[in-house]
């Protein structure tokens, strides 16, 4: 019975939340000489400094992933590069 429980836990993978999607995008451009703990702290500070419009793109991607995983659990969504959001100007 214990083996079945572990198998179910492995099958049910949670969708990445908005911050994790953002951090994953940043991770693609991470300098090699930075520790992961330091990188995560910087990513968290950058996430907190984003305006709502910038975060909205990651919320949309999260909702798309959540909807997609409910309807097509065996297929994955194509990766989109959201790095342009990092330079998005919230004041305009």
Proportion of helical residues: 55-70%
As residue ranges, the low-confidence spans are none
Q: How many distinct domains?
A: 1
The gyration radius over C-alpha positions equals 16 Å
Tell me what portion of residues adopts beta-strand conformation.
under 5%
| CATH fold description | DNA Binding (I), subunit A
Q: Please give the number of β-strands.
A: 0
- Report the span from N to C terminus: 58 Å
CATH architectural designation: Orthogonal Bundle
Determine the mean pLDDT.
76
**SSE order:** HHHH
Summarize the structure in words.
With 92 residues, the chain is mainly alpha-helical. The protein has one domain (2-87): DNA Binding (I), subunit A (Orthogonal Bundle). The protein has helices spanning 2-11, 18-27, 36-49, 52-71. It is flat, with a radius of gyration of 16 Å.
Structure at a glance:
The chain has four helices and no strands.
Question: How do the strands and helices of this protein lay out in sequence?
Answer:
Elements: H1 2-11, H2 18-27, H3 36-49, H4 52-71
Question: Which properties best describe this structure?
Answer:
single chain; 92 residues; mainly alpha; 4 helices; 59% helix
């Amino acid at each position: 019975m214990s083996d079945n429980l572990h198998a179910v836990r492995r099958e049910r993978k949670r969708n990445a939340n908005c911050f994790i999607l953002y951090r994953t995008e940043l991770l693609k451009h991470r300098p090699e000489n930075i520790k992961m703990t330091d990188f995560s702290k910087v990513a968290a500070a950058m996430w907190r400094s984003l305006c709502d419009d910038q975060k909205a793109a990651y919320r949309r991607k999260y909702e798309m992933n959540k909807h997609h995983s409910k309807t097509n659990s065996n297929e994955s969504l194509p990766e989109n590069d959201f790095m342009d959001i990092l330079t998005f100007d919230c004041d305009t």
